[in-house]
Each structure stands twice: as structure tokens, then as C-alpha cells.
UniProtKB/TrEMBL annotation:
One of its GO terms (biological process) is methylation. Residues 41-133 form the Methyltransferase domain. Pfam families: Methyltransf_25. This is Methyltransferase domain-containing protein. PANTHER family: TRANS-ACONITATE 2-METHYLTRANSFERASE-RELATED (PTHR43861). Keywords: Methyltransferase, Transferase. GO terms for molecular function: methyltransferase activity.
């Protein structure tokens, strides 16, 4: 069972509590803070393209990369014809040009389960950034997996769909398993059941910083979820801002 196949159909409906516009505004302000007011921007794990679209409307030349063709199909329906969407795995992405900045949201990088693969992602981003380019990304924290998600079940029921989301966190390997059952309303008013399994890895911030610096980045900030406050022990999401050395 692959992640983000059937879920893509109702992803935006169930994620309407996510402050995409606030996150996009934060990223936009960081770009301007560092003098990036135009040019090519890379969205890693762009999903249904909400933030990609927001930044495109701000005048950036956007490229979105995602491994889920179903999510990219939803993004394409936004009719942002000036955005290029690429169906690629971010661990193996092969891009055609350089970028002034790159970013990744919605804990996309937690889906990279191996140290060596995440290292490769950082290296590929570094190689495709212009000198001084920014790399902004978020991560779910070890605290969130251990204290919030571990062995808990979440559910939501709506008119057009429902879900049951079971979690199991393997504390030895720092892997969180999401078992997702979706009930999606069909045209004949019958609900069809879909099942997906998602896996995410909890990374220590010490390891993340070491990987970035080894790849040539300078870590500028590690903040609590899209804010200007430094990350805390009980931060559930952190936002990391790194810069390619000139």
C-alpha cells in the first residue's frame, strides 16, 4: 500500500486546518529578508501545490517535485500553468537548472527514513542552489512522535469522507508507522474504503545540523514551527533555515 494515493483525493479537505498561507507567508518573508525577490524556487514534496501556487502568484518561477502522481494531478487542476510539476523522488531527483532557494513543508523530509538518503537530499539541494541560496524546511520532532502521536488513534468524520489514523512509534529505530483507513464518498453516495500505510523517521536536530554543515550549508536558524522563536524541547514542528555558503 503506497502513501498518498487514495488520500490525495481528499487531502486538501482533511488538511484544511493546516495554516498553509501563514507558512507560505513566512517562507516569502524569509526569501525577502535574504534578498531573494524573484527567480527560480524549488518546492520539495509539493503535494497538492498550495504553497507552490501562493509563491507563484508572488512572482517566483516555481518548480514542484513530488513522488505521488496522484498529488501532482490535484496540483495540476489548480490551473497554474506557469508552474512546472515534476514526478520525481526527492532522494533521486535530477533537475535541469539552478535555483535561488528551495523549501520543503508538511514534514516531507520525515518520510526519508535512512540517514544516507537524507544526506543525499541535502547534497542534491546544495548542488542545485546558487551561491548564498536558502534552504527552508520543517520537520516533525522526536517530542511529537513520542509524546503526541505514539500509540494514539485519531479520527474525523465529514460529509464527503472520514478517516481513522492509527500510530505506532518504534522507539528503538525512531520510525513512526501511520495506518490510515479512508472512507471516501463516491458519486452514488456509497462510501468506499481505502487503506494506506505511511512511515516517518524522527531525526535529532544535532544530526540534521551535522548533515547540513557537512554538505556545505550554514544553519542560520532552527525555530519553533514557522515562527521567529527558537525551537524548544517541546516543539512539535521545527523550521530550519540554512544557506549555501558563497
Amino acid at each position: 500500500m503506497e502513501a498518498y494515493t487514495s488520500f490525495a483525493q481528499v487531502y486538501d479537505m482533511f488538511m484544511d486546518n493546516v495554516p498553509y498561507e501563514d507558512w507560505a507567508t513566512y517562507i516569502y518573508k524569509q526569501f525577502h529578508k535574504h534578498g531573494i525577490t524573484d527567480g527560480k524556487i524549488l518546492d520539495l514534496g509539493c503535494g497538492t501545490g498550495k504553497i507552490t501556487s501562493f509563491l507563484s502568484k508572488k512572482g517566483y518561477d516555481m518548480v514542484g517535485v513530488d513522488s505521488s502522481i496522484e498529488m501532482l494531478e490535484v496540483a495540476a487542476f489548480r490551473n497554474d500553468t506557469d508552474i512546472m510539476y515534476l514526478h520525481q523522488d526527492i532522494v533521486e531527483m535530477d533537475l535541469y537548472s539552478d535555483f535561488k532557494a528551495a523549501y520543503s513543508t508538511c514534514n516531507c523530509l520525515n518520510y526519508v527514513l535512512e540517514d544516507t538518503d537524507l544526506y543525499d537530499v541535502f547534497q542534491r539541494v546544495y548542488d542545485k542552489l546558487e551561491d548564498g541560496g536558502l534552504f527552508i524546511f520543517d520537520l516533525n520532532t522526536e517530542y511529537k512522535y513520542r509524546e503526541i502521536l505514539q500509540d494514539n488513534t485519531f479520527a474525523e468524520n465529514r460529509e464527503d469522507g472520514s478517516f481513522i489514523w492509527d500510530n505506532y512509534f518504534d522507539t528503538e529505530n525512531n520510525i513512526n508507522e501511520y495506518q490510515l483507513a479512508l472512507f471516501i464518498k463516491q458519486n452514488d453516495n456509497i462510501y468506499k474504503k481505502y487503506e494506506e500505510v505511511h512511515y516517518q523517521r524522527a531525526y535529532s536536530l544535532v544530526l540534521i545540523q551535522k548533515m547540513l554543515e557537512t554538505n556545505g550549508f550554514t544553519v542560520l536558524e532552527i525555530n519553533d514551527e514557522y515562527s521567529d522563536e527558537k525551537a524548544k524541547e517541546d516543539s512539535e514542528i521545527v523550521t530550519i533555515i540554512a544557506q549555501k555558503k558563497c
